[in-house]
Amino acid sequence: MKTAIVTDSTAYIPKEIREELNIHMIPLSVIMKGETYEEEVDLFADQFYEEVKQLDKLPTSSQPSTGKFIELFEKLAKDHDAIISIHLSSGISGTYQGAVTAGTMVEGVKVYPYDSEISCMAQGFYAIDAAKLALEGKSPEEILLRLNELKASTRAYFMADDLSHLQRGGRLSSAQAMIGSLLKIKPLLHFVDKVIVPFEKIRTRKKAMNRIAELLGEDAAKGIPLKASIIHANREEEAMEWKSELEKLYPNVDFSISYFGPVIGTHIGEGAMGLTWMLK
């Protein structure tokens, strides 16, 4: 059985890796200055953060249309028996539901929509692992089993430097009542039940990053092989420095660097920093 792997642009998997592993990407969009841009296609992270600085009004984002999913799925149906479509958390976007709907409207291929319940490189890790297994000829059921194993081991925390983006975007969910106090600190945030909620309130950026490192250390100390990704919002130099520090602290963890692209950056703002890790 030949299985295609699809993910959306918020996984922020580099193009060369997508091409190498045959990962198909469907883009979300950012609406800015009255124009709609598909991220990772005609709008990229560095360009986005520069443009936003000059805007009076924050950009907005939109999910792919069901038609876009149908178009891609029908194309893949020509030479695949199954499609696993891995998407950002259904608690913050309707993208996953779009894949579900499209999957019921395409003939000749079995579509398995997968809710990552998270986003960014955590979602990217899922797609990469799934693609490697698909290339090995594993069945959709075997691939989904692996994704669930990864999900059970996944942890991710991030710090938003400017919470006004999350507040205005309505992405803080149950934390909305806490916004007034949160705006004065550097809160650690994470996903719980598919939505973003506060984890801890911390006073400075450095202390917040140190706390994330401590949380990684708790899992690294168990001796299990881990892979991790530092995720930044236009703070590449800081991310590289942090990677160097973490590699010294946790030599048994395989680190990489990723980024918050335009769609996620629209909601968390420039300067955000995060770390995700899971079983290697």
Automatic annotation (TrEMBL):
Gene3D superfamilies reported for this sequence: 3.30.1180.10, 3.40.50.10170
MF terms in GO: lipid binding
Pfam families: DegV (PF02645)
Keywords attached to this entry: Lipid-binding
Keyword Signal: no
Claim: Iron-sulfur is one of the keywords in the record: no
The protein's name: Fatty acid-binding protein DegV
InterPro entries: DegV, DegV_C, DegV_domain_contain
UniProt-listed NCBIfam families: DegV (TIGR00762)
PANTHER family for the chain: DEGV DOMAIN-CONTAINING PROTEIN DR_1986-RELATED, FATTY ACID-BINDING PROTEIN TM_1468
Organism, scientific name: Heyndrickxia shackletonii
